[in-house]
Amino acid sequence: MTSWVRDPAFARDQPFGPQTLPYGVVDAGDGPRVAVRLGDHALPLRSIAHDLGDLADLVSGSSLDPLLAATRVEWSALRARLVSLVTESSTPSGAELLPLSDVRAVLPFTVGDYVDFYCSRYHAENVGRIMRPDTEPLLPNWTHLPVGYHGRSGTVVVSGTPVERPHGQRRGPEFGPTGRLDVEAEVGFVCGGPVSRRVPTGQAAEHIFGVVLVNDWSARDIQGWEYQPLGPFLGKSFATSISAWVTPLDALAMARVKVPDIGHPRLPYLVEDSPWGLDLRLAIEWNGSVVSRPMFADMSYSCAQQLAHMTVNGATVRPGDLFASGTVSGPSKEQRGCFLELSWGGREPITVGDTERTFLEDGDTVVITATAPGEDGSVVGISPVEGTILPAVDL
Question: Which residues pair with 175 in a beta bridge?
């Protein structure tokens, strides 16, 4: 490939080449600016506004909010224009290329509603066996609908933000910092387009702008005490980390696959005319050691089915809404997407470098990465999500 971008990481066989072009917001000390990622560099789009024509207003501000409020037609037109610009041999006039090491990534959009699903059959069955060993691992409704719950959008943070160990009630009852702090490797979907209700599966692309990775941090001892009979609350609402860069849905056209069979026909509103499962390959690093490699293609419900379900009762989807897939797990131990599963409820220690762990300790760092297949054998990247655990504060 001939391009004015002189960065070895900006290549079709690298995750953040011209086939990906994720959007983010960076601050180089002069305020936040919308940018697109080119390899290990950021290109602030304000610097090439004259080359973007009437699309420039969507990306000339300090967040992705105006872009999310646009339409699928505008999203696709902007992406096509950017692909053309970054693959030209001559540098666009005024283009400013900033090393990622010289900028600070900030939360790229205003998060509206946040919904978290629970759509990996392997994860749900494993958790059922761990938490309810004397009952059926799947509850009767699980194969009929995408189970989900409302989260706390105010605690969604950008990748790299430290996570403070939370307090809460534990079985006993007793109160204090969690002793079973966990991760959940998930895929998140950033919504945009017009405010709508009852979005059918065939219109998902009009309302899903792009994809991020999500770490829905979980305090398992707090969750285990509070979640019956209702769903997650304090055990999950203290922090949810997302990628700093949003990979456009258009970049994942070659990654679409059918979701697995659930054993019976789906209700009509959950039927897809075309497949919306995604072949994303995740990896979870714990203090630099890869401890799991989940496959998103194993999920039992797609993003289109999740969006259809969360709006079928008349609830709206708005620009900036975020919904997450739920923990991504697979059939083998090496594909489990959280430490509750990997350690089987804390009974089977996990090898992390030269130590053994069950749950997170203060100072631990977790990084979740993912890639997908792209056109002509290229690799599409989903920006990593990272977090380091801080000690609990004294109350």
Answer: 169
What is the secondary structure of 161-198 as a DSSP string? Answer: --EEPPEEEETTTEEEE-S-EE--EEEEEEE-SS-EES
Which of left, alpha, beta for 320 (phi over 0: left; psi -120 to 50: alpha)?
left
Residues 296 and 282 sit within 8 Å (Cβ to Cβ): yes
Mean pLDDT of the chain, nearest integer: 97
As to burial, measured by CB atoms within 10 angstroms (0-12 exposed, 13-18 middle, 19+ buried), residue 106 is middle
Average pLDDT of the residues in 252-281: 98
Task: Tokens for 151, please give them.
Answer: 């989260």
Is 53 strand, coil or helix?
Answer: helix
Written as one letter, the residue type at 117 is F
Q: In this prediction, what percent of the chain has a pLDDT beyond 90?
A: 97
The region of weakest confidence among 129-133, 159-163, 304-308, 323-327 is 129-133
Average of per-residue pLDDT across 263-280:
98
For residues 82 and 96, what is the distance between their CA atoms, to the nearest angstrom? 14
Q: Which domains does the chain have, with CATH numbers?
A: 23-106 (2.30.30.230), 114-390 (3.90.850.10)
Query: Would you say residue 1 has pLDDT above 80?
Result: no
Q: Give catalytic residue positions.
A: 123
Residue carrying the six token digits 């490699």: 293
Question: Could you tell me the CA-to-CA distances from 10 to 19, 87, 168 in Å, in that order?
Answer: 9, 10, 45
Of 36, 16, 17, 15, nearest in space to 25 by CA: 36
Per-residue pLDDT averaged across 228-240, rounded?
A: 93
Q: pLDDT grade, residue 2 (50/70/90)?
A: confident
Average pLDDT value for residue range 4-31: 97
Token pair 């790229």 in the structure block, residue: 108
d(CA 264, CA 188): 27
Distance between CA 350 and CA 357 in Å, rounded? Answer: 5
DSSP, collapsed to helix, strand or coil, labels residue 32 as strand
